[in-house]
Design a protein that fits this description.
By secondary structure, the protein is an alpha/beta fold. The chain has helices at 24-37, 61-72, 83-86, 93-103, 115-118, 127-133, 166-174, 185-194; strands at 11-17, 41-46, 78-80, 108-113, 135-141, 155-159. Strand 1 (11-17), helix 1 (24-37) and strand 2 (41-46) form a beta-alpha-beta unit. Bound molecules: adenosine-5'-triphosphate and magnesium ion.
Length: 201
């Protein structure tokens, strides 16, 4: 039974991504969204194989889960969730949200995503179900809002703009440059220990 801080239904953030690797942009966005929406918790859910990113994932699933665990350790609002990695095949948001409702009866779900992802919503599996199961929240960097013409309800939450991307982190590591301050120290340690992203793809 999921209950919130005051004993009401829990307000759960659902933050999906490739997290290849997780970086400070993700942390600041999740933190600001949690504050603005009074979320009790934010579940970070690395995707097994992102349907739109097939073939482009550089680190194996277990490594991405380990990096997410390292990134969120120490923030009691955040939790790494291996739900999508345990499921066989690609992870559809609708299936994840159904599973989360089963695990957290009565919880209100807030699906956090960047505007870039949300533009693809009409191509997601069962978009009508997705918006029934969760409130869609655009983490809005630099004033960008809900994509114009989106045929589904969504809200924008302003977050501090931190222009880091996983692509840039991977590129830097491949080029032998430091990613200090762009990813948490604990994530850098996992990257170094596992020797991730050393080859520039
Ligand atoms: P890549 O460069 O490989 O596309 P990414 O940095 O976009 O990676 P993802 O794992 O794809 O990271 O992102 C997960 C979610 O976080 C997406 O909804 C994305 O829009 C959002 N996001 C990514 N980077 C930032 C950032 N700097 N600030 C806020 N949100 C972000
Ligand atoms: Mg991206």
């Amino acid at each position: 039974m999921a209950t919130g801080a005051e004993g009401g239904a829990a307000r759960l953030g659902v933050f999906g991504g490739t997290f290849d690797p997780p970086h400070l942009g993700h942390l600041v966005a999740a933190s600001d969204a949690a504050l603005a929406l009074k979320l009790d918790r934010v579940l970070w859910i690395p995707a097994a194989v992102h349907p739109f990113k097939l073939g482009a994932v550089a680190a194996p699933p277990e490594a991405r889960l380990e990096m997410v665990r390292a990134a969120v350790a120490g923030d009691e609002r955040f939790e790494a969730c291996d739900l999508e990695l345990r499921r066989a095949g690609p992870s559809y948001t609708v299936a994840t949200l159904r599973e989360l409702h089963a695990r957290h009866p009565g919880a209100e779900l807030f699906f956090l995503t960047g505007a870039d992802n949300l533009r693809e919503l009409p191509q997601w599996r069962e978009p009508d179900e997705v918006v029934r199961l969760a409130r869609l929240v655009v983490v809005s960097r630099g004033g960008e809002g809900v994509p114009a013409g989106l045929a589904y309800p969504a809200m924008a939450v302003p977050v501090t703009r931190v222009d880091v991307s996983s692509t840039e982190v991977r590129r830097r590591i491949g080029a032998g440059q430091t990613v200090r301050y762009l990813v948490p120290q604990a994530v850098r340690e996992v990257i170094a220990r596992l020797g991730l992203y050393q080859t520039n793809l």
